[in-house]
């Protein structure tokens, strides 16, 4: 029957009588007529056909042109035309492969992955991941608006269901990555109900990165230290911030420290930047002593160095008061980078309680007051727990290399970082230097890899470059 309406409600017997209610009604049941179902299918087909030229304009235009030529001149002309097009594409591919891949290859790949990977599996993956919404026994799914491909990842633009938030997707990045067969997933918010899910097709950071070339000009707001997951340079900001680097032994903390120092070499030579180094292990930073304006390798010497930095910072702040609000590096007032390797030795492990207290007070003062007057603390440690380092929140920018436990990810990068895909505890031990970075003001962690600065590279740096500072090396250590 094309139209067979049934009663909207029917009276049923009471199973559990309640006072003042002799009978009850079941929920309304309105069967959908077959005619409406067929009409809905036809409407969807019409919308699909009308929308194809807007979604695939080039393919539809080529198809329409081929049909028109076939109708006017026959199939032979169509075959000859397509043969010429194929030859032109072949020449384009061989002569200009990069532009061919950008304008043709990646677009074809996006169309293929839209249909074969995402559209085909969209409903089951989202239902199992808990991202499908149900209202009045009807299921609502976020819709794929567009799929684009870059050299390394797929970007799936999604229209959210009204009433949901991007956090729902951010909390399901692991399920989405496994569901679509990607190494990871990252969610970028573009606007209200408009997000992009980024799925890498392979690990672009699996290959070690050699030490980067020393830049001719130093930009303290964007020092090149490695690569990001999308293949663009990873640039680390030091001026106007403080950076905390956390990772277990062998995770690559030295690569981050030395890459930052290497990127500042021209400024170290001209005296506009100074590096004051603390190296309790005497194994990491001791290679570059000639590059540092100040160096300390014992607890007492390190505390004296930190307190000298606090005094210099306060003197500079007193001179700036009422005259300027920001710092510009000069030879008279250089930008000072305090590089603290294994900072937990000073804050938790040193046997002298007074040394620990003084070191913690000095670091807290530098990190809370030093940004505006040209002082930066670049600290590295292994254990991010509060009892080891309770000053984590004073470092605006944080870098999480390989960690021991999943809970440590949120300790370093902030609450919710692991839900957004920053699985630093799952980094392969064979990938030193791979890390997740979370910058001030951005909740989204970015996967990066620091360049590896070898011992030979450091020897070359010390041979070719020297610090313009005149402070004699190791004076602080000897005075202690």
From TrEMBL:
Pfam families, per the entry: FtsK_SpoIIIE
Domain FtsK intervals: 231-410
The keyword Ion transport appears for this protein: no
Biological process terms in GO annotation: cell division
Membrane-spanning residues: 20-39, 46-66, 72-93
Keywords: ATP-binding, Cell cycle, Cell division, Membrane, Nucleotide-binding, Transmembrane, Transmembrane helix
GO MF terms, alphabetically ordered: ATP binding; DNA binding
Positions that bind ATP: 247-254
InterPro entries linked: FtsK/SpoIIIE/SftA, FtsK_dom, P-loop_NTPase
Gene3D superfamilies in UniProt: P-loop containing nucleotide triphosphate hydrolases (3.40.50.300)
Protein name according to UniProt: Cell division protein FtsK
Origin species: Thermobifida cellulosilytica TB100
């Amino acid at each position: 029957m094309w139209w067979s309406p049934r009663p909207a409600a029917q009276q049923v017997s009471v199973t559990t009588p309640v006072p003042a209610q002799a009978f009850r009604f079941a929920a309304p049941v309105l069967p959908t007529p077959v005619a409406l179902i067929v009409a809905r299918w036809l409407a969807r087909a019409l919308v699909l056909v009308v929308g194809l030229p807007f979604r695939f304009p080039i393919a539809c235009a080529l198809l329409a042109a081929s049909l028109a030529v076939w109708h006017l001149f026959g199939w032979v002309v169509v075959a000859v035309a397509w043969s010429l097009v194929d030859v032109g594409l072949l020449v384009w591919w061989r002569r200009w492969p990069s532009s061919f891949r950008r304008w043709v290859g990646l677009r074809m790949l996006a169309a293929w992955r839209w249909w074969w990977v995402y559209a085909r599996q969209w409903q089951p993956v989202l239902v199992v991941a808990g991202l499908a919404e149900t209202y009045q026994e009807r299921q609502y799914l976020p819709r794929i608006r567009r799929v684009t491909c870059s050299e390394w990842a797929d970007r799936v633009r999604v229209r959210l269901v009204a009433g949901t938030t991007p956090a729902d997707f951010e909390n399901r990045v692991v399920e989405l990555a496994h569901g679509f067969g990607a190494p990871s997933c990252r969610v970028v918010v573009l606007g209200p109900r408009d997000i992009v899910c980024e799925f890498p097709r392979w690990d672009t950071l699996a290959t070690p990165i050699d030490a980067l070339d020393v830049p001719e000009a130093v930009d303290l707001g964007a020092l090149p230290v490695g690569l990001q997951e999308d293949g663009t340079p990873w640039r680390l900001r030091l001026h106007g911030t403080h950076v905390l680097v956390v990772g277990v032994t062998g995770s690559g903390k030295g690569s981050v420290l030395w890459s930052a120092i290497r990127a500042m070499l021209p400024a170290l030579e001209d005296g506009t930047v100074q590096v004051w180094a603390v190296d309790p292990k005497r194994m990491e930073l001791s290679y570059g002593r000639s590059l540092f304006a100040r160096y300390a390798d014992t607890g007492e010497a390190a505390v004296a160095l930190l307190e000298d930095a606090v005094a210099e910072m306060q003197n500079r702040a007193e001179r700036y008061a009422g005259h300027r609000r920001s710092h510009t590096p000069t030879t008279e007032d250089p930008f000072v980078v305090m590089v603290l390797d294994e900072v937990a030795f000073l804050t938790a492990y040193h046997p002298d309680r007074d040394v620990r207290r003084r070191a913690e007070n000095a670091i807290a003062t530098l990190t809370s007051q030093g940004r505006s007057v040209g002082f930066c603390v670049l600290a590295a440690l292994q254990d991010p727990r509060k009892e080891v380092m309770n000053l984590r929140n004073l470092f605006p920018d944080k870098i999480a290399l390989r960690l021991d436990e999943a809970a440590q990810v949120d300790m370093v990068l902030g609450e919710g970082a692991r839900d957004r895909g920053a699985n630093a505890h799952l980094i392969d031990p064979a990938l030193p230097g791979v890390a997740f970075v979370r910058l001030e003001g951005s909740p989204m962690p970015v996967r990066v890899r620091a360049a590896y600065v070898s011992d030979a590279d450091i020897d070359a740096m010390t041979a070719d470059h020297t610090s313009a500072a005149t402070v004699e090396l190791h004076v602080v250590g000897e005075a202690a």
